[in-house]
């Protein structure tokens, strides 16, 4: 065998090995592509129903938000009505109620002064005098009696 023939055989052997490696690589690449295709198909099968569920959930949330918005506007209307009602009641009854309270205070005060001028009843508790809703200790009663005596003179 000559050197050219040996070189040709070596090139043919290396070429066969290279083709074998490329064939193995292509087979593995084909398997990877098949697995990827199957994975994408499975994801697509699962994603479509999930997207449908998500779409329904978003629609339901939007419906609930619309309801909450209408409830909030109703509450705002009720609040403004209650505010208007309280303003009306305060303006309608506020003045007369203040006048009635002032009149009652004046009547109590007048009755209290009238009762202070007269003698204290004997059946009251010892050491205290009751003057129309007020209890006066004995020391103050004595001072009041002295003042009353001075006014008479």
Structure description:
- With 153 residues, the chain is mainly α.
- Strands 1-2 form a two-stranded antiparallel ribbon.
- The radius of gyration is 53 Å and the shape is rod-shaped.
Q: What's the short version?
A:
This protein has 153 residues and is mainly α. The protein has two helices and two strands; from the N terminus they run αββα. The radius of gyration is 53 Å and the shape is rod-shaped.
Give the termini distance in whole angstroms: 166 Å
Given the helix and strand composition, which structural class is it? mainly alpha
What's the arrangement of strands in the largest beta sheet?
A: 1-2
Strand content: 5-15%
Helix content: over 70%
Q: Main β-sheet, in a few words?
A: 2 strands, antiparallel
Uncertain stretches: none
Order of helices and strands: HEEH
Q: Number of helix segments? A: 2
Integer average pLDDT: 83
> What's the β-strand tally?
2
Shape: rod-shaped
Radius of gyration: 53 Å
Key words describing this protein structure:
153 residues; two-stranded antiparallel ribbon; rod-shaped
Topology overview:
Layout: H1 3-117, E1 128-131, E2 134-137, H2 138-152
């Amino acid at each position: 065998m000559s050197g050219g023939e040996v070189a040709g055989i070596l090139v043919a052997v290396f070429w066969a090995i290279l083709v074998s490696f490329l064939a193995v690589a292509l087979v593995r690449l084909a398997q990877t592509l098949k697995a990827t295709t199957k994975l994408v198909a499975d994801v697509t099968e699962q994603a479509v129903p999930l997207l449908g569920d998500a779409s329904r959930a978003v629609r339901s949330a939007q419906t609930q938000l619309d309801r909450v918005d209408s409830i909030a506007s109703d509450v705002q209307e009720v609040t403004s009505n209650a505010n208007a009602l309280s303003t009306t009641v305060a303006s309608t009854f506020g003045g007369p109620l203040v006048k009635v309270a002032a009149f009652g205070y004046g009547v109590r005060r007048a009755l209290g002064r009238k009762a202070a001028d007269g003698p204290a009843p004997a059946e009251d508790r010892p050491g205290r005098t009751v003057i129309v809703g007020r209890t006066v200790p004995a020391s103050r009663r004595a001072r009041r009696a002295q003042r009353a005596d001075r006014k008479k003179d």
